[in-house]
Automatic annotation (TrEMBL), chains A, B:
HAMAP family: PurS
Protein name per UniProt: Phosphoribosylformylglycinamidine synthase subunit PurS
Family that this chain belongs to: Belongs to the PurS family.
InterPro entries according to UniProt: PurS, PurS-like_sf
Described purpose of this protein according to its UniProt entry: Part of the phosphoribosylformylglycinamidine synthase complex involved in the purines biosynthetic pathway. Catalyzes the ATP-dependent conversion of formylglycinamide ribonucleotide (FGAR) and glutamine to yield formylglycinamidine ribonucleotide (FGAM) and glutamate. The FGAM synthase complex is composed of three subunits. PurQ produces an ammonia molecule by converting glutamine to glutamate. PurL transfers the ammonia molecule to FGAR to form FGAM in an ATP-dependent manner.
Subcellular location: Cytoplasm
Key words of the record: ATP-binding, Cytoplasm, Ligase, Nucleotide-binding, Purine biosynthesis
Family matches, as Pfam families: PurS
Amino acid sequence: MKARVTVTLKNGILDPQGKAIEGALKSLGVDGIASVRQGKVFDIELAGADAAKAEAALKDAADKLLANTVIENYRVEVLG
Amino acid sequence: MKARVTVTLKNGILDPQGKAIEGALKSLGVDGIASVRQGKVFDIELAGADAAKAEAALKDAADKLLANTVIENYRVEVLG
């Protein structure tokens, strides 16, 4: 079973990495970019075919390791 | 205009970060995870409302900076 966990910064949390990318894009001549915020994406394969069980395992993984839930949100998508 | 650029490793490219996460999840007692591959996601705001122009700017940004196109694929989604 394939799944994707997307981790992004919560609103209001400063993203210095994103700011650096904005600046770099401007100096590379890429126009029209107002703001950039960087996050992480995890493409995960799970054993078994139980979507509910997979979703629970992925939430567990995100809470324990993949996301810092103090400053980050995460979204779990079980793709089947 | 909001858009998202998702950058992931090409198939066949070894992902040591993903391997490390797999091991850590096992030791944290998260079961059923067969494999993990980590990527990047960029949430980008663009000035203007021309979707085609936005898409072109995002491809330019990905080719020049956001992705290493030798080992990474990227996907541009203009969300409107």
